[in-house]
Design brief:
Blueprint lengths: L9 E4 L2 E2 L3 E14 L10 E15 L16 E7 L14 E15 L7 E8 L4 E4 L1
Length: 135
Amino acid sequence: MAIIKGSEGTVHVGTNAIAEIRSYSLEETGDTLETSTMGTTARTYVPSLTSWSGSVDVYLDETDSTGQGALTAGSQVTINVYPEATGTNNTPASGDVKYTGTAIVTSVSKNASFDGLVEASISLQGTGALTSTTV
């Protein structure tokens, strides 16, 4: 089993890397429809629609116009998540897995404390399928 370090990951808006990423998350869910009928003693289900959502937490970088700057509330973007980016300059290498999907930015939250850095948290709602391919 290959183990991937979290520090190897990167997230791109289209082909543009997002700067100063602290963490990211992706969640895929699948709905179910109940098919139980009278007289059964256990509930039964069939799969239905799937969906996905995610978030990216960053140190705020006002100069990153094509990464962080493209992630404004209400915008629709193509997100590429590379859990393992081991190529030159932390770019995806041949054989690495990537997750791709179209997402709507649902919120951008900025926060700071007197003894810390300014951070931002970007929430994403997928629209359509999240696909997994190999680079």
